[in-house]
Every structure is written in C-alpha cells, then in structure tokens.
Amino acid sequence: MADRALLEIRGLEVHYGGIRAVKGIDFEVAEGELVCLIGANGAGKTSTLKAISRLIPSNAARLAYAGDDISRARVHELPRRGLIMVPEGRGIFAQLTVEENLAMGAYARRGGNPQSQYERFPRLAERRHQIAGTLSGGEQQMLAIARALMAAPKLLLLDEPSMGLAPLMVEKIFEIVADVARQGVTILLVEQNARLALEFASRAYVMESGTISLAGEAKQLLADPRVREAYLGEAASG
Q1: CA distance 98 to 59
Q2: Is the dihedral of CA 153, 155, 160, 162 positive or negative?
Q3: DSSP secondary structure of the chain
Q4: For position 111, what pLDDT does the model report?
Q5: 2 pLDDT tier (thresholds 50, 70, 90)
Q6: Which pLDDT belongs to residue 238?
Q7: Under a CB-based contact definition with an 8 Å cutoff, are residues 36 and 201 in contact?
Q8: Secondary structure of 134-181 in HEC code, one letter for each residue
Q9: Are 144 and 180 in contact (CB under 8 A)?
Q10: pTM score, two decimals?
Q11: Distance CA 162, CA 14 (A)
C-alpha cells in the first residue's frame, strides 16, 4: 500500500436516533488503491459512504481527505475537491437526457469532456439524446459512473454498482471500474457481490453490525474460510 492515505477514518460513528449504525470504525484508502467494503445488508456500509460524503451527520476522531479534515465540510464542497459518490440506486436525473446528465456531472469542477466518456461508454454515445429514465438498468449505471467521472474525481465512492443488473452487465460494470482504477482514480467500493469485489480490489474491509471484523489484502480475504462461508456461499471447509 502507498504511504499516503487519501482517505483516513478514525473512530467513525453514525447514529439514527438511538440506533448506533456505525460503531467507531477505523480504516484508510491510499492514493491509487481500489478498496472494497463488503458485508451483509444492514452492516453499515452505505452509512459509512454517506458519512464520508457528508450526506448524513456523523462523529469521528478523524475524517480526513487528502490530509484535510472534512468532518465539517459542506456536501457541495467535496465534489469540487475531487471526492465524488455514485449512490446506491444510481441517482441519475431521470427526466434529463444522457448528455444533460453528463453536463450536470461536470458542473462541480467545470472541465469534464463528454467525448471522453462517450469513448469509454459507446452505448451512451448512441443514446446521448435519449431521456435517461428510459435507459436500461445497466445503461443507467454506466451513466451514473460517467457522470461522476465528468467531475474528474480523485476519490470515487461507489455504492452497490452491480445491484439489480444481469450477470453479463455486472461483469461489464466491474471491467469499467477496474479500468478507471488503472487510470489512477482512487476507488472505495461498497458491493454486494463479494466475490467480484474481492477479485478486483487490492485491499478489503469486512463490516459486521457496524464494526470492521476483518481487513487485509483482497486475495487473502477471498481465500479466508470465514469470508467464504459468510459471503461467498461456501462451506467453511470448502
């Protein structure tokens, strides 16, 4: 792992009323890494991403991005600094065209080039004038990622990009994510498909009931009997 932590989390807590959804977790993502966060539904993964993005209130001993404390940052400030989130459910502007969605993505940092995204996503180029809400689920996920890339992210947070997609489209989306990572974008990925996430990531954290129960190199966790039994549907001795 690189020495410099682009994202550093210490003692992160998220509460919903009296419910403690995230319980003082510590983790970091180094510049240039693709790190995944896996776990069962309700483990606190999405809450963690939303806390990093400042979309929900949280408490932390340290919540730092690029060496700067962002624990009091306003939501709209982070995209301008290169921290971009693709939310669960994609969050596209359904009534706008593909091209208009991409333009919205470039608004935060002014300088995104739609053509570069059309080259990466040829299917979006074919549908540039189509209303986004009429796209297939996979095309909408492509658009959500392309829109995020229009802001030239340094750190990309991806929340469940494979949700609801057919297997072939899931593989395509992961190939795109891997390509984005190879081009130098740091990625923190929350993903229900634990096997694929661990195959593509460099490091991983496992969340259980608001805590981090395991952490390490992704390939090592992929071979860990505890992970294989709990998240890959394999017997512990398999």
Answers
A1: 37
A2: positive
A3: --SSEEEEEEEEEEEETTEEEEEEEEEEEETT-EEEEEE-TTSSHHHHHHHHTTSS--B-SEEEETTEE-TT--TTHHHHTTEEEE-TT----TTSBHHHHHHHHHTTTS---HHHHHHH-HHHHHTTTSBGGGS-HHHHHHHHHHHHHTT--SEEEEE-TTTT--HHHHHHHHHHHHHHHHTT-EEEEE-S-HHHHHHH-SEEEEEETTEEEEEEEHHHHHH-HHHHHHHS---TT-
A4: 59
A5: very low
A6: 39
A7: yes
A8: HCCHHHHHHHHHHHHHCCCCCEEEEECCCCCCCHHHHHHHHHHHHHHH
A9: no
A10: 0.92
A11: 25
* Confidence check: pLDDT of 3 > 80: no
The residue to which tokens 């996430």 are assigned: 197
Q: Extract the tokens encoding 78.
A: 């982070």
Token digits of residue 1: 């792992």
